[in-house]
Write a structure and sequence with these properties.
Blueprint (H helix, E strand, L loop, with lengths): L1 E7 L3 H12 L3 E8 L6 H14 L7 E3 L13 H4 L21 H15 L3 E5 L4 H9 L7 E7 L14 H4 L2 H14 L3 E4 L1 H4 L3 E3 H5 L5 H17 L3 E3 L3 H8 L4 E10 L10 E3 L18 E9 L1 H12 L1
Parallel strand pairs: 1-2, 1-4, 2-3, 4-5, 5-6, 6-11
Antiparallel strand pairs: 7-8, 9-10, 9-11
Helix pairs in contact: 1-2, 1-10, 1-11, 4-5, 5-7, 11-12
The protein binds beta-D-ribofuranose (BDR) and calcium ion (CA).
The site of beta-D-ribofuranose has 15 residues, from helix 1 and helix 6.
């Protein structure tokens, strides 16, 4: 089993990701850390506990992380995820409490434990990367327990929250820039599961309506139905869930290695991930800012039906 940690701002599609990570037999979900994003942190924590309960995984530690981005004001997305972040579904909300250990501390503990056991952990951030930036700057030694980072965010082409930028990076660009820089410095491999593939893994309403008979399957069906009602057409993307698929089944994802920077200024481009598709061997020491970008794997195509089947098989 592959040890993983999810960092989430649950979120309808974070919920799709959590159900998959909690239920798939190839993954060992060691912790879930929460960050403010799609909704405020209190709702993120409740939603995360709620989804893990539905998945029958009350054993997984859940920790509170950063409520706010590093520098800028908070931006949420109730129009995408509902006021409570989980689509305002008719579903009982968890009354459990999260761990008393803060997210950055839990991340450090689980990663150092992974390092000590020779079982490096895959970190899957599906939200603004505030917690991860704080972790890597506070405890860089925890990188010894990191096998890789596979994050949902950014994109080489389109944006969503603006024409240039994707929500998770746009809402805390400094954090994303720190994570990329730290990963480069610490030698942690990074894969960007961005908007170039994010919308492709669609579960149809017909497929979703075949789900049922367990709390996890009932919730999975409701998530797809709600996402379809809000902005789908005959079905909906599992969104963040695709990044978890990429960890379970990397052969379903096509990636290319590119140097990537995060735009921190710009009138219309703040929060954009600038994917440098020029000749890879180009000498970047002449770049105006003199700062080397981090070379990462950028997802460019996905086997969408394979990942949709993977998700359906795990949550049914
Ligand atoms: C990302 O932002 C959030 O709305 C989703 O949960 C996903 O992580 C897509 O831009
Ligand atoms: Ca998310």
């Amino acid at each position: 089993m592959k040890p993983v940690i999810l960092d989430v701002d649950t979120g309808l599609d974070d919920a799709c990701a959590l159900l998959l990570a909690a239920r798939h037999p190839d993954l060992d979900l060691r912790a879930v850390t929460c960050v403010g994003g799609n909704v405020g942190l209190d709702d993120v924590v409740i939603n995360t506990l709620t989804v893990l309960e539905a998945a029958g995984r009350t054993d997984v530690p859940v920790a509170r992380g950063a409520a706010l981005p590093l520098l800028q004001p908070m931006l949420t997305a109730p129009h995408v995820h509902g006021v409570d972040g989980l689509g305002d579904l008719d579903w009982p909300r968890s009354t459990r409490s999260p761990s008393t250990t803060p997210a950055v501390e839990l991340l450090r503990q689980v990663l150092l434990d992974g390092a000590a056991k020779g079982e490096p952990v895959t970190l899957i951030p599906l939200a603004p990367m505030t917690n991860i930036a704080l972790l890597l700057r506070t405890y860089p030694e925890a990188a010894a327990g990191l096998r890789e980072i596979v994050f949902m965010g950014g994109g080489a082409g389109i944006g969503n929250v603006t024409a240039s930028a994707e929500f998770n990076v746009y809402t805390d660009p400094e954090a994303a820039a720190i994570v990329l820089a730290a990963a480069g410095e610490l030698g942690v491999p990074v894969t960007m599961y961005g908007l170039d593939v994010f919308y492709d893994v669609v579960v149809t309403l017909e497929q979703a309506r075949g789900l049922g008979g367990s709390p996890a399957a009932d919730l999975a069906r409701k998530l797809i139905e709600k996402r379809t009602e809000l902005y789908g057409d005959g079905g909906a993307s599992i969104g963040d869930g695709g990044a978890v698929c990429a960890v379970i089944d990397p052969d379903g994802l096509t990636t290319e290695r590119f140097p990537v920077r995060v735009e921190l200024a710009g009138s219309w481009s703040r929060g954009r991930t600038i994917v440098d598709t020029r000749d890879f061997a180009i000498d970047r020491s002449t770049d105006p800012d003199g700062v080397s970008p981090t070379v990462i794997e950028v997802a460019t195509a996905v086997d969408a039906s394979r990942y949709a089947e993977l998700w359906l098989g795990a949550v049914k």
